[in-house]
Design brief:
alpha/beta; nine-stranded mixed sheet; six-stranded mixed sheet; 28% helix; binds guanosine-5'-triphosphate; binds sulfopyruvate; binds manganese (II) ion
Length: 589
């Protein structure tokens, strides 16, 4: 057989995978439009995908996953390092030998009658010293087509590898999509990922969470950089000055929305501009100038569909109008287009829901699954930054953490310094969402929005953050935001979306010492007068109520954090236990 690569390790990996899974054919993906078009055609012929209205949505397709396979499965996701303690207290662990054997038993012969596709891809611009190459084998055309949007797929990846360069091996087999045999396994010490019995995005697009966060966070720890669950955006000021920030929010907590934000009218009139560099993942390094520089290793957006509309996120919506794959949304049979909750009001009279059933507004169910998604090429995004393809990325002025907190956490606050900022990230809690299986709306700790994605001991991860602050002579300032404060009726107390620009302005002003702040028990909080409310029907009192730091609540929070911290034992950096002690003391003062 003629291989498109001379890399012996790639060939060996593909041969071993084929020997185990026994596909009828092997197709080497080259990334060409010709090959992808043929695969789209084949997927439509078998029913794996449905072609949508090509006049209204050119190049767009529809896919339904199995009903039991609609989100990441955190309880079936494992870090398989040799020593259990290196996975840490927040990860599931399995012995690598046992995990390899178990996965081999599950996948053995499962590609019989099927084709195995070999996908060469780069996370990051091909040829950048910061980029990394992966090869994923899969028996799913849907995976091939999604990877071709989400990553940089092409034979030039093999050129990067040369004859014996290393790469991240990803093995994916759909098997029987059996939830009882579904495993998402990471072998950080072997640069290997194995995913079986799923066909849902985050479990099978192995370049994304599996590689670019779980494996990459481990590589970052070893090599002195960071892989984070962060959007990256740029703000251009009226005087032409540019600033960049990266923000870590848990899954379905607003990264894509913030990354593509359109500022309120009067900001646009003054000349403010917001650009998107990335919406989910940031790889961050210390630059020669002592600043932290961030790249987005992805090439597309795997975004939450529900809630996306012309008002909340017009840029994301525009990005989905061509060459996009929709997963588990509803179909509008009137014109063969797509619909999801929040797209338009009222809902269309008749839809076909994500399960394939007829649906009307009276059905009393969701037409689109709450975790239904679009896979859209980054180039489609009207506000994509020129820096998107830059090899060195962008220098960060601010890092922002944030979660879904109905109470306690104010709209925004600033940490006192880097170490305190790491503390602020480490104490993040957020209500769970539909992005992972399990109950939603349950408050849980999610440090740096990395609880599901850190590929090693979270205590060591905290230490790595502290260390990075020492290495960077000029690190970004660190903040925390909460767009999700609620009143007693469960209504959000902050308008959010484009109006979050008002908070970003304060954050970036703080980076220049251009705006004042009040010191509180938890850090620096804005004076209500310093948040621009122009053009908004919103009272200063409400603003004050969501900026208020309630010491009694924070004292209880500090006790709860102490419980959470216990599991890290002596891996918990002293910098963080000191910050916790200070918080407790401040709340009692
Ligand atoms: P992942 O792709 O899962 O990592 O999610 P994400 O962090 O990119 O979240 P996304 O921007 O897709 O938003 C998820 C949900 O939060 C959507 O239903 C949004 O409508 C909602 N949301 C986003 N921003 C805001 C906001 O500022 N305020 C409110 N109230 N809701 C928001
Ligand atoms: C998330 O859950 O944070 C996502 C979607 O971005 S997934 O790719 O499924 O992880
Ligand atoms: Mn995400």
């Amino acid at each position: 057989m003629a291989y498109p690569t001379k890399n012996k390790k790639v060939i060996a990996f593909v041969e071993e995978s084929a020997k185990l899974a026994c596909p009828d054919n092997i197709v080497w993906i080259d990334g060409s439009e010709e090959q992808l078009a043929a695969l789209r055609k084949e997927a439509c012929a078998t029913g794996e995908m449905i072609e949508l209205n090509q006049e209204k949505l050119p190049g767009c397709y529809y896919h339904r996953t199995a009903q039991n396979d609609v989100a990441r499965v955190e309880d079936r996701t494992f870090i398989c390092c040799r020593e259990k303690e290196n996975a840490g207290p927040t990860n599931n662990w399995m012995d690598p030998k046992e995990a390899y054997a178990m996965c081999a038993d599950i996948a053995r012969g499962k590609m019989k009658g099927r084709t195995m596709y070999v996908i060469p891809y780069s996370m990051g611009v091909v040829g950048s010293p910061f980029s990394k190459i992966g090869v994923e084998v899969t028996d799913s055309i849907y995976v091939v087509l999604n990877m071709a949007i989400m990553t940089r797929v092409g034979l030039n990846c093999y050129e990067q590898l040369g004859e014996d360069g290393d790469f991240i091996k990803g093995f994916h087999a759909k098997c029987d999509v059996d939830p009882e045999k579904r495993y998402i396994m990471h072998f950080p010490e072997d640069d290997t990922i194995i995913s079986v019995n799923s066909a849902y995005g985050g479990n099978v697009l192995l370049g994304k969470k599996c590689f670019a966060l779980r494996i990459a966070s481990y590589l970052g720890k070893t090599e002195g950089w960071m892989a984070e669950h962060m959007l990256i955006l740029g703000v251009t000021f009226p005087d032409g000055k540019k600033k960049y920030l990266a923000a870590a929010f848990p899954s379905a907590c607003g990264k894509t929305n913030l990354a593509m934000l359109i500022p309120p009218k009067h900001y646009l009139e003054k000349g403010y501009k917001v650009e998107c560099v990335g919406d989910d993942i940031a790889w961050i390094r210390v630059g020669e100038d002592g600043r932290l520089w961030a790249v987005n290793p992805e090439n597309g957006f795997f975004g939450v569909a529900p809630g996306t509309n012309e008002k909340s996120n017009p840029n994301a919506l525009a990005a989905t109008r061509k060459n996009t794959i929709f997963t588990n949304v509803a179909i509008n049979p009137a014109d063969n287009t797509v619909w999801w909750e929040g797209l338009t009001k009222p809902a269309p009279d008749k839809l076909i829901d994500w399960l394939g059933n007829d649906w009307t507004p009276a059905s009393g169910t969701k037409a689109a699954h709450p975790n239904s998604r679009f896979t859209a090429p980054a180039v489609n995004c009207p506000c994509l930054s020129d820096a998107f393809n830059s090899k060195e990325g962008v220098p960060l002025d601010a890092i922002v953490f944030g979660g879904r907190r109905a109470t306690t956490t104010p709209l925004v606050y600033q940490s006192r310094d880097w170490d305190h900022g790491v503390f602020v990230g480490s104490i993040m809690s957020s209500e769970t969402t539909a992005a992972a299986t399990g109950a939603t709306g349950v408050l849980r700790h999610d440090p740096m929005a990395m609880k599901p994605f850190c590929g090693y001991d979270m205590g060591d991860y905290f230490a790595h953050w502290i260390e990075m602050g020492k290495k960077a002579k000029n690190p970004p300032k660190i903040f925390n935001v909460n767009w999700f404060r609620q009143d007693e009726n469960g209504e959000f107390l902050w308008p959010g979306f484009g109006d979050n620009m008002r908070v970003l302005e304060w954050i970036l002003g703080r980076c220049d010492d251009a705006v004042d702040a009040q010191e509180t028990a938890i850090g620096y909080v804005p004076y209500a007068k310093d948040i621009d409310l122009d053009g908004l029907d919103y009272s200063r009192e409400t603003l004050e109520s969501i900026l208020y730091v309630d010491k009694a609540r924070w004292s209880a929070e500090a006790d709860e954090i102490a419980q959470f911290y216990k599991q890290f034992g002596d891996k918990l950096p002293k910098e963080l236990s000191d910050c916790l002690a200070a918080l407790k003391k401040n709340c009692e003062a």
